[in-house]
Amino acid sequence: MLPSMLNHTTLPLLEQAVNFTEARHGVLAGNIANIDTPGYKTRDLSPELFQESLKRALEKRDERPATEVSPGVLAPRERARQIDAFAEVKESTKHLLYHDESDVSLESQVTELAKNQSVHNMAVSLLTQQFRLLEAAVTERVA
């Protein structure tokens, strides 16, 4: 009941954003650590690919299910399909994209790291606020 109830909130979206930015941070930090290593090829996770996968997952999630029993109640197979809507997003974070042989400057890596950290912090802040709202609703307090 709880996963299907939370599936149409922003929580799954924010969870995927936090997971992606965490994985990308590790990759970018590795690039910075190895920037002077001879023959090292910089790596990155594509934010564009992630965003496209997330967009497709949201569109898939928001499709009106044909097997809806009554408003808000889904058949078990349809529930599983909606929960798996974000599986493609998780897959997009596993593929590393290698740049060409050219050097990437330390400045560009630090810039990408800072942008990634900003997105991560925003997603965590929004996720925290969503949980506060849920807590307020459950405990019947005024937010």
Task: Furnish the topology, listing elements before pairings.
Layout: H1 2-6, H2 11-33, E1 43-44, H3 47-62, E2 68-70, E3 73-74, H4 76-83, H5 87-92, E4 97-98, H6 106-139
Antiparallel strand pairs: 1-4, 2-3
Helix pairs in contact: 2-6
Describe the structure using short key phrases.
single chain, 143 residues, mainly alpha, two-stranded antiparallel sheet, 64% helix, elongated
The average pLDDT value, as a whole number, equals: 76
Number of strands: 4
Helix content: 55-70%
Write down the oligomeric state: single chain
- From the alpha-carbon coordinates, what is the Rg to the nearest angstrom? 19 Å
Sheet with most strands: strand arrangement: 1-4
Low-pLDDT stretches: 94-100
Quick one: overall form?
elongated
Structural class based on helices, strands and sheet pairing: mainly alpha
- Total individual domains: 1
- Topology as H/E string? HHEHEEHHEH
What is the makeup of the main sheet?
Answer: 2 strands, antiparallel
Question: Beta-strand percentage?
Answer: 5-15%
Helical segment tally?
A: 6
Distance between the termini: 24 Å
Description:
- By secondary structure, the chain is mainly α.
- It contains six helices and four strands, in the order ααβαββααβα.
- It has helices at about 1-5, 10-35, 45-60, 75-85, 85-90, 105-140; strands at about 45, 70, 75, 95-100.
- A two-stranded antiparallel ribbon has the order 1-4. A two-stranded antiparallel ribbon has the order 2-3.
- Helix 2 (about 10-35) runs antiparallel to helix 6.
- It is elongated, with a radius of gyration of 19 Å.
- The two termini are about 25 Å apart.
- The model is unreliable at about 95-100 (pLDDT under 50).
